[in-house]
Specification:
The protein has one domain: Trna Endonuclease, Chain: A, domain 1. It is about 25% helix and about 45% strand. The chain has 4 helices and 10 strands, in the order ββααβββββααβββ. The strands form 3 sheets. Strands 3-6-7-8-9-10 form a 6-stranded mixed sheet, with helices on both faces. Strands 1-2 form a two-stranded antiparallel sheet. Strand 8 and strand 9 form a beta hairpin.
Length: about 140
């Protein structure tokens, strides 16, 4: 394998060629593909701040914004830490404002599950939660898939 030098700010990093290909598909990319397959127009609004070395979500809760026949939807995508993201949305004041203004919120968590009991083959499966307002409180319902 050939070594590649990449300039990052004032630091130079040495990576093996093909490093980024080995990382696999991100949860955000997987979510974008899933949302578009459902007929929504979707774009990523999360970005990486290279100076702070952190990801920044829209309003602290939204990775993807999608438009469709039923309106606008903000989507948070994650991996196995579904419950932490759920708590984050339920406690975030901007989530309340987003829902109050007519937007919809959705959390999609990805996990690998066996194709059937006893199988070795695995596939990625989404766990989906929808958020709505009820009596000035954010409520959550998970879809049965």
């Amino acid at each position: 394998m050939k070594s590649v030098n990449i300039q990052y700010g004032n630091q130079e990093n040495n990576f093996q060629e093909g490093f980024y290909l080995m990382a696999g598909i991100s949860n955000t990319s997987r979510t974008l593909e899933y949302i578009r397959s459902q007929g929504w127009e979707a774009e990523k609004v999360e970005y990486f701040n290279p100076y702070a070395r952190k990801r920044k979500d829209l309003f602290g809760i939204i990775d993807i914004v999608a438009l469709g026949d039923k309106g606008i939807i903000g989507v948070q995508s994650c991996g196995n830490n579904f419950s932490q993201h759920n708590e984050k949305i339920l406690s975030e004041p901007m989530a309340f404002k987003w829902l109050q203004k007519g937007g919809t919120l959705m959390l999609i968590g990805w996990r690998k599950v066996k194709l059937h009991r006893g199988a070795k083959a695995m596939r990625w499966s989404p766990r989906i939660a929808y958020y709505y307002l009820k009596n000035e409180q954010i409520c959550c319902v998970e879809s049965q898939k």
